[in-house]
Specification:
Length: 375
């Protein structure tokens, strides 16, 4: 493959779906909070039980309620371990007997596997759809928890967030790991909207956050009161109680919280979730329009309404080597556009999270044009 002319390159070459681009301003905030001297106490490297860090956690929690326009009584709960740990947290602390999972990619499959392998609940009901499409929840007798991803990051398919009608009392638990902060949502349609901060929130991994309805909190308390065994680090009621005091059960990564708070403030200052939603629509629209226009390329997700705003996937014709294009881009500092490893397609996956400049998406597409035109 040919080399890429420097003038075509994006100003920031990070297009990964997580970890994802961190804005320089977030890193500057870190440097500010690490400064010592002049009688000032830095925040980094100080106790998470003291006021400075608790204020930071409080700011994150308030900022998220504000950003998601949370209905009365919803709370922001957080703990360590990322979204993967939250699947265990939810299986111990939210699931009574039987879950229904919509599975249409790797992440949704992993949560289904967690409840399937748990010995203390029934096998889940699984509604499966081929990668690139979506499965939707259906009311079902005996199910007390409905689970699906807002955005299936492994395929770039986005599903609506809407309660299955006619099953009051059951919980709707949505994996919003890659959607939260970049896609509009009506939280009233969920009981638990959970995510990790390394995608739309442009921070580092390791933390899980959940916006929880009063019904979900009540379920967690009832389950714990029933006396069932819950490992301490996965105990949701402990996390709820700690979060109410702007703390976590065990030590969190402070840098992750600082960068998360910066990103929440940045989105709010720019106009909130509606602004972020419009920005990711613009960026993803550029990719899909480009893929529709180029003869060698096709959007992987056929249904337009299910094409993700935040993680785009583009298939290439057999005579194009997508992996070689990704490798050439990487040599030029444009990284992480490889497809999800287990999907095994001749594909590129390009994240269009809020931190990514639409103009950088334009530049990336110009680079792809160049590579395709100079094969
Ligand atoms: C990235 C991702 C996860 C895994 O998040 P971790 O924080 O690495 O555990 C889960 N679900 C979705 C939809 C994701 O995009």
């Amino acid at each position: 493959m040919s080399a890429l002319p420097a003038h075509l390159l994006p100003t920031d070459g990070r297009f990964g779906a997580g970890p994802s681009k961190v804005r320089p301003e977030q890193v500057a905030a870190l440097a500010r909070l690490a400064e010592v001297g002049d009688g000032r106490t830095p925040l980094l490297g100080t106790s998470h039980r003291q006021q400075p860090v608790r204020s930071l956690v409080g700011s994150v929690r308030r900022g998220l309620l504000d950003l998601f326009d949370a209905p009365d009584g919803y709370e922001v709960v957080l703990g360590n371990g990322g979204s993967t740990a939250f699947w265990d947290v939810a299986t111990f602390g939210l699931l009574e007997q039987k879950a229904q999972h919509c599975v249409f990619g790797e992440f949704s499959a992993k949560f289904a596997e967690v409840t399937r392998s748990a010995p203390f609940v029934q096998d889940p009901s699984v509604r499966e759809a081929a990668p690139g499409s979506v499965a939707l929840p259906e009311p079902e007798e005996g199910v007390d928890l409905y689970a699906w991803p807002h955005n299936e990051t492994s395929t770039g398919a986005m599903a609506p967030v809407r309660r299955p009608k006619g099953d009051p009392g059951s919980l709707v638990v949505v994996d919003a790991t890659s959607a939260a902060g970049g896609v509009a949502v009506d939280l009233a349609e969920t009981d638990v909207y959970y995510f990790a901060p390394q995608k739309c929130f442009a921070s580092d991994g390791g933390l899980w956050l959940a916006l929880m309805s009063p019904t979900a909190i009540e379920r967690a308390v009832d389950l714990k009161d029933s006396g069932t065994w819950i490992p301490a680090s996965l105990d949701l009621v402990t996390a709820i109680e700690q979060s109410r005091q702007d703390q976590t059960y065990n030590t969190p990564a402070l840098a992750t919280l600082v960068m998360l708070d910066e990103q929440v403030r940045w989105i709010l200052d720019n106009g909130g979730l509606a602004w972020a939603d419009a920005r990711t629509r613009e960026s993803s629209g550029l990719v899909y329009d480009w893929a529709e226009d180029r003869a060698e390329a096709t959007p992987f997700v056929r249904e337009v309404e299910h094409r993700s705003q935040v993680v785009t996937t583009v298939d290439f014709a057999d005579d194009v080597d997508a992996a070689a294009m990704a490798a050439t881009l990487r040599e030029h500092g444009v990284v992480d556009v490889e497809p999800y490893r287990k999907l095994g397609r001749n594909q590129l996956r390009i994240a269009t999270f809020p931190a990514i400049e639409p103009d950088d998406v334009r530049a990336l597409l110009a680079c792809l044009d160049h590579l395709l035109d100079h094969r």
